[in-house]
């Protein structure tokens, strides 16, 4: 477990893929307490990554910090950037807007034709920063944070992420090629604006894009 930063108010780390973000057995807070050697450490989840997604996350060290970070997320003051490898050739840049419906029984998200129950607007912007054959490396800025948003919005346009098994027929046996690359927020105590960034692991399919400046 790699910890990038810690003080009494926050803890920033790299969540490994296939680890739950929430505080339950085997979840990220429990693993962090083990890493810290303190099973009573106050480590609180304030935002989530899909279980199969890894990358940068911040957790709160108190109820007050959790409340302030949650407010920033609700009010659009929390910046989130992702990297993804897409099956297909994307435009140089673009904005995706959809209505997404969450099917809680099936634990899946779908593009909806019209507003309705469990339907929310989803928005993201992306820039294509690399190509390898018919695969594209994109940097994504989330404007909303819907469940499975990135995966569904790209898959619905015939551009599924590599390693996608839920919303497309998998063409690769790799892990889902989606990585929380950067987060930015205001420190809940000091008021300082903070920014944390980490590259994805040096393994397939990220290694298809050899120029490190691309990230």
CATH architectural group: 2-Layer Sandwich
Instruction: List low-confidence stretches.
Output: none
Q: Helical stretch count?
A: 3
Largest sheet features: 11 strands, mixed
Through-space gap between termini? 22 Å
Query: Which class of secondary structure composition applies to the elements?
Result: mainly beta
Describe the protein in words.
Strands 1, 2, 3, 4, 5, 6, 7, 8, 9, 10 and 11 form an eleven-stranded mixed β-sheet that branches. By secondary structure, the protein is mostly beta strands. The chain is 13% helix and 38% strand. It has a single domain, classed as Pseudouridine synthase, CATH 3.30.2350.10.
Task: Note the topology.
Blueprint (H helix, E strand, L loop, with lengths): L1 E5 L3 E6 L12 H9 L7 E2 L8 E7 L2 H12 L4 E9 L5 E11 L4 E5 L6 E14 L2 E8 L6 H7 L22 E9 L6 E5 L18
Parallel strand pairs: 4-10
Antiparallel strand pairs: 1-2, 2-4, 3-4, 5-9, 5-10, 6-7, 6-8, 8-9, 10-11
């Amino acid at each position: 477990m790699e910890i990038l930063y810690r003080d009494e108010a926050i803890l920033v780390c790299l969540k490994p893929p296939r680890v739950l973000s929430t505080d339950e057995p085997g979840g990220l807070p429990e693993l962090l307490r083990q890493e810290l050697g303190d099973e009573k450490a106050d480590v609180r989840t304030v935002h989530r990554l899909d279980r199969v997604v890894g990358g940068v996350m911040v957790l709160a060290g108190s109820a007050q910090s959790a409340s302030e970070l949650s407010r920033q997320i609700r009010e659009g003051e929390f910046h989130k950037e992702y990297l993804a490898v897409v099956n297909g050739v994307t435009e140089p840049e673009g904005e995706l807007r959809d209505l997404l419906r969450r099917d809680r029984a099936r634990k899946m998200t779908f593009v909806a034709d019209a507003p309705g129950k469990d339907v929310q607007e989803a928005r993201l912007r992306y820039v294509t920063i690399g190509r390898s054959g018919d695969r594209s490396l994109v940097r994504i800025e989330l404007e909303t944070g819907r469940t499975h948003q990135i995966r569904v919005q790209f898959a619905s346009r015939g551009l599924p992420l590599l390693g996608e098994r839920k919303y497309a027929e998998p063409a690769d046996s790799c892990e889902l090629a989606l990585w929380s690359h950067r987060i930015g927020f205001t420190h809940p105590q000091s008021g300082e604006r903070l920014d944390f960034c980490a590259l994805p692991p040096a393994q397939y399919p990220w290694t298809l894009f050899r120029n490190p400046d691309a990230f």
